[in-house]
Amino acid sequence: MATPSLRLVYSAQNPETAKSSEEQSFVHEEKIITASDSESKRSLVNIDEIYREQPLIPSPFGRALFILAEIIKKTDTAIEMYSTDALGADHLMQYVQSRLPELFSCRSIGEGYGISINAMIGVYENLEGNPFELNQIERIKQVLSKLRSEPLIDAEDAAILIELLEDAGLKVEPPAFDELVEMLNE
Amino acid sequence: MNKAFVDTTILTDILLKVSNKRTQASEALKKYDSTELPLYAIKEFKAGPLRNMVWMYNKFHQTKSFEKALRCLQTISQSPKKYLTATAIESMVLGAHNIKNLSTQDLVDKYGPNAKLDFVLKDRFKYTIKTKVLVAWNKRRKVTSSVCQELFCFKERNPYEIDGQLFLDPMKCDEDEGCCLSLQLKDRLEDLVKIRETLESMPVKPETQRRLRVIRGIIRKPKSLLTDKQCRDLGDIYFVLFSPKDSVILTTNTSDFVPLASSLSKRVESPNPLD
Lengths: 186, 275
Hints:
The complex is a heterodimer of chains A (186) and B (275). Chain A is mainly alpha-helical and 186 residues long.
């Protein structure tokens, strides 16, 4: 029996935003890996086996994976130190915030990815500088980890991730969104 | 056991609003042992607030610009307070532009037009609306203890996407099947007469006039089937007529509901005690 091959083709899901030459080349980028029968399920392919290190020519996809890995480590440390050094933990979460604009710039990866990072930015805006509670950092980490393992997440699954954030008492909408809803329903 | 019959304004506040209106509406529901949402509220929600959100989403998609999409809203606004809408839009644009760190020159150099502020804001609002629409639709039947009074001529099809734009149809009932409310309304002529008298005594407003036209038509020809437009024009009348006697009608629109509900000896409550 032939060894099945798992062919992953990464395409920009939002063509209107995939305009730079870098992104255009990204559209055509593809990787082929082989997997044994038992490894052929999607969930068994770790994203780090596909992208082992930061790519020489950074694509939005590669950049996002790199930054996500970096800030997941920061949230991990923030969770560990939360009970003994709340200020230190909050400082790490400030670093996470500082990386979100670039992560958002990589949204040509896909709509679900963009939706999730947008929600994360909204969380920080609505906190207005107030520190996170422990369970909220854990939720943030959960979302970031999901995004890193499944960056091509679809909009419906991203909406479920956002509900996780909301269930932890975090608001995800950008400022002025409520005004827009009011105007639409005048 | 205290029960609430929930109207469309409460459903909208819970599913779409962000401010304290959402909190107030959610807290209000918790005061009752049992809460019921008639399917008519879901139909109204889909054809009203949810459709407006989807329109805005598609406008962001079509114009590819935050500011241009908001200008479209300003142009199309039917609000009698149009000048207020214009001011609100100005303040939204200004407020949104305060988020400057999302579009630095570095990011524009690195990621191109995708990182320009107008484009960033457009995508942020687009993503937020899409999330709201998906979550609102998924949660529509979970807001209350139960959904009651199913409308057999109304199909609850999920929102769908074509070429990057969202669509919600059908928002109308299937008129070929005949209006399922018509049969029930013809048995409520006595109540309809009381409601007509109340409507006639209320201040003249376009929606009051639309309701009066429908009610007069039913009283005149009780065996006629309602059209989808007539069904939608019933609006508040539906909730007043079909709320169970042992429930209160929970709404934020007390000014319209109280006189109508009083005519049938029914009670109305608002999440905001000041209403």
